[in-house]
Amino acid sequence: MSSVDGIVNEEIARLREELNKAKQRMQQWKEKTQAGVSEMRNRIVELTNQLEECRAANKLLSQQVSNATVSVVTPFAACDLEKSADSFSSFATFRVEQWLDDALTALCDTQLGKYNLLIEIANATSQELEKHKRRTAQTLRLQRKTTDALENEIANLREQVSVLQGDLAERSCAVKSRDQALEVLQGRLEEMEAAKVSYEAAQTALVSKLNAEQINVFEERLEEDRESMRREFAAREALIFDKHREEMEQLASRYEHDMAELRREIEEKPLGVVEIENGLALWPSNTARHPEDCDDVAYGELMSDLEALQEELRVSREENRKLTQEISALRTGPLSSGSLTALNSGSGTPESRVHPQKLTEAISRITELEEDVARLSEELYIARKRAVASVHQSSTVKNPKPSLVFEGQLAAYLRCTIVRLLCSAGEPAVAKNVFPVLNALLQFEKEDIEEVYRKNPDWIKRRF
Fold first, then answer.
1. What distance in Å separates the CA atoms of residue 81 and residue 92, rounded to the nearest whole number?
2. For 20, phi and psi rounded to 5 degrees?
3. Which residues form the GRIP domain (predicted)?
4. Given 1.10.287, 1.20.144, 1.10.150, 1.10.10, which CATH number is that of 2-205?
5. Contact (CB, 8 A) for 365 and 246
6. Phi/psi of residue 142, each to 5°?
7. Which of 11-25, 254-268, 370-384 has the highest mean pLDDT?
8. Average pLDDT over residues 102-111
9. Does residue 198 carry a pLDDT above 70?
C-alpha cells in the first residue's frame, strides 16, 4: 500500500511541476506579447510624431514658397507696369516659376515617399501585432486546454487516491481486527498453556502423593457414580424384564395356540386321505408317482428352517440371559475404582467391548438383542405358518399352488399384523418386522419387494 501511495504522490508532484512550467511559459508569452505590443505602440507613436513633424514642415515650406512667390511676383509686377515690354522680367518670372515647380515637386515626392514608408511600416506593424495577438490567443487556448486536462487528471488522481485511502482504511481495520483476534488467541493459548502446566503439576502431585482429602473426595465421587449407575441399571432391568416377560407370555400363548391348531389339523388330515387319492389321478405321472416325496421334501425344508430359527432364537435368548446376569452382577456386586475409571473414560479391551461394562453399551446391546428376539419370534411364527400351509397343500392335491385363503388363525394373525402396521405411526422398526410376515401371508411379487427395499434402504434384505 505504501508503494501505491508513493507512486500516486510522485505522479501528483510531476503533474504539478508540469502545471507550474506551463504557467511560467504562459507568463513568459504574456510578457513577450506585452513587450511587443508596447514596442509597436511606441513605434506607432514615433511614426505619428514624425508624420506630424513632416506635415508641419510641409506647411511651413508651403508658406515660405507662397511668401517667396508673392515677394518675387510683386516687384516684377511693378516693373511690368513700368516696363511691360522688357524681356528680362519675363525670363525671370519663368525661371522663378520653374524653380518653384521643381521645389514643390521634389518636396511632394519626398513627403509622399515618407508617407508611403510610414504607411508600410504601420501596415507591417499592424500585421505583426495581429500575428502576435493570434499567437497569444492560440497559446492561451492551448494553455487553457492543457490546464483543463491537467485539472481533470488531478481530479481523477484525487478520486483514485480517495478510493485507495478507503481501501487502506478497510485493510487497516481488517489488520487491526486480525491483530486483536491474534492477541485474544495468544491470550487463550497462554491461558491454556498455564492450565496445562497447572494440570500437569496437579497430576504429578496426585500421582506422587495423594492426600487423604483428595482420596476421600474421589471415593465419594466414585460411590455417587456407582449408586447412580445401579439405580439406572435397576430401572432399565425392570423395564426389560417386564417387556421380556410380556413378550415371552405372548409367544408362549401364541405357540400353544399354534400347536393346538397344528394338532387339530393333523388329526383332521386322515379325513382327507380319500379326497387326496381321488385327486392323484389329475396330477402328472411323475407327481402321481412321488407325491409323498415332494411333500416330504417341502415339509423337511420347512422343518429345517424352523429348527434353524429355533436355534437362533435359543442362542439370542441365551445371550440375553447372560447379559441379564451380567447386569445383575453389576447391580449387586462391588465396583472398583479402576473399573469405574475405565467406564468413565470409555477405554477398554476388545473383551470388555464384547461383554459391555458401560451402561450405554449394555443398553444398546440389550436393544439389539430385543430386536433380534422380536425378529426371530416373527420368523419362527412364519415358519410355523409355512408348515401349516404345507399341510394344507398336501391335503389339497388338486390345486398345486397354495391358496391364499385366510381362515381361522391365519385370518386372525393377518388382522393383528395389519393393525400393528397401521398403528405403528410411521415407526420403521415395526414396519421392518411386520414386512416378512405380510410377505409370507400375501406372497408379494418380486417387483413389490424390490420397491419396498428401495424405499427403505436401511432394511436387511432377506430371501423369500
1. 15
2. -65, -40
3. 411-450
4. 1.10.287
5. no
6. -60, -40
7. 11-25
8. 72
9. yes
Determine the Cα–Cα distance for residues 316 and 376; give it in Å rounded to an integer: 9
Q: pLDDT digit string (tens) for 159-186?
A: 888 888 888 888 888 888 888 888 888 8
46-70 pLDDT, tens digit per residue, is 877 877 887 787 777 777 767 766 5
CA distances from 401 to 162, 306, 341, 397, 443 (A): 92, 21, 63, 9, 12
Q: Are 430 and 420 in contact (CB under 8 A)?
A: yes
Could you tell me the sign of the dihedral formed by the alpha carbons of 102, 104, 107, 110, in that order? negative
Reported in sequence order, the residue ranges of 109-222 that DSSP labels E, i.e. its strands, are none
CA distance 161 to 15: 15
Cell readout for 20 is: 507550474
DSSP line for 308-376: HHHHHHHHHHHHHHHHHHHHHHHHHS---HHHHHHHHHT---HHHHHS--SHHHHHHHHHHHHHHHHHH
Quick one: DSSP state of residue 281? Answer: G
Helix (H) or strand (E) holding 269: none
* Parts of the chain belonging to CATH 1.10.287: 2-205
Look at the chain and count its residues.
Answer: 464
